[in-house]
Amino acid sequence: ARFPAEPPSGPEPLGQILGDYLRLVEPNVTHWQHPGFFAYFSTNASGPGILGEMFMATLVANAMLWRTSPVATELEEVTVGWLRRMLGLPDAFDGLFTDTASTSSLIGLAAARQAVEGRRIAQEGLAGAGRLRVYCSSEAHSSIEKAAMTLGIGRAGVRRIEVDEEYRMRSELLTTAIAEDRAGGWVPAGVVATLGTTSTTSVDPAAALAEIAERERLWLHVDAAYAGAAALLPEMRSLFAGWERADSIVVNPHKWFFAPLDCSLLLTRRPEVVRDAFSLVPEYLRTLGEAAPVHDFNEYTPQLGRRFRALKMWMLIRYFGVDGLARRVREHIRLAGLFASWIDADPEMERLAPVPFSTVCFRHVPAALAGRRDGPGIADQLDRHNEALLDAVNRDGRLFLSHTRLRDRFALRLAVGSLRHDEARVAEAWRVIREIASRPEAGRRD
Hints:
seven-stranded mixed sheet; alpha/beta; single chain; Aspartate Aminotransferase, domain 2; 13% strand
C-alpha cells in the first residue's frame, strides 16, 4: 500500500516521478536480468533490443497496414525471412511477429479450425461444425488449452496424449486416439507437437506426428517457442526433424534470441488459411492503388493494432550476427550439460529428466532418505523437503529457481539462457544450492 490510492489532481515534476520509480518500483521487481535468475526461459534485455524498443516507442508506428507504416511491413518481411533461413526452414514458410506464443498458438489453432474440411467456421460459426478435437501431449503448454477455450473448442476438446519415459508424445497413442474420437463423433482438427516443453524441454517426435497429421488430414502446429532457437545450430537440427512439414510453427525470439518481451515469430506454410481465419477488411482499412500486392499483416491475426517488432529484431540480428547468436545458444546448452553432470555425480542429487537443451530438472535426496525412497510416506516427505529447499534458495536472494511436477514428483528447475549466464554463474548456482541443501533446516519451512 505504498502507492497512493488516488491519482494526483495536478501535474507532478518528472524528477519526483522518477524518484518514486527508483524508490518504489525497481527495488520490488523480480529481476529477470539478474545473473542469478535461472527460474524461467529468459527474457533478455540486450542492448540492441532495448534501443529497438526505445525507437519503437518513439515512432509509435502502428504496423497494421502497409500504408500505415510501409517500412514496418517491409522490414518485417525481411526479418522474418532472415529468421526462417537461420532456423533451416524452407522457403515455403511465410510469417509475421506477434506478442507471445499464446497468441501465435491461438492463430495456429484458429487456422486448424478453419481448415476442417467442409466448414468455414470463421464465416459460418461453430453451429453444425461438430465437436472439434485438438491433440497435444500431456506435457504441452497450458496456452493450447487457453486457445481452445477462446476458439470455442473448449478444454474438453483438447485431448492430451501420454508421453514416454523421456516425456515425448507417444505417436502410436495419438493414432489410437484419433480413431477412437472419429468413432465417437468427434471431428479431429489439429495436432500440436511441442519441441521443447516448458517443464522438461522434451521433444515430441515431429516427423512421426507429421506423418499422422498428413494421413489424417489434420493441421500440424509446432510449439517451439523456447527451443526453436536451438535449430540455429547444425548439431541440434536432428531434434527438429519433421518440423518443416508443419502447417504452422511458433518460435519466441524473446526467449532465447535475446529480444526484450514481447516478440513471437509465427511461421506457416499455408498463409491463405490463416488469412481466411482472420481477414475482415472494412473500407477504411482497405489498401488502394498499390503498385504490387502488399502484406497487410492485420489480416493474419485477431489484433488490428500491431507494434513495430521487426525493428528490434533487425537491430539485434545485425548486432550479434548469426554466428554470435549461435555461439551464445551453444554455450548455454553446454552450461546446462555441465550442471546436469554435477547433479549426476552427487549422491544426494537426482536428475528427473533428460537435458536436450538448457534446462535441468532435479531434486535433492538427503542421505537419510536415499535408501528408503520407496518406503511409506517417503515420496511426500521428499516433496515437502524439496518445496522447502526451493523456498530457502529463493529467499536467500542469490538465485531464483522455479519448479514443476514430473510423474508426481516435485522437481526444481534451473534454466540457462540469459546473456549474463556464464560458467562462473552456473558454478555459483551449484555452490549455493549445495550450501543451502546441506543446512539442517533446509528441508523445513518456517
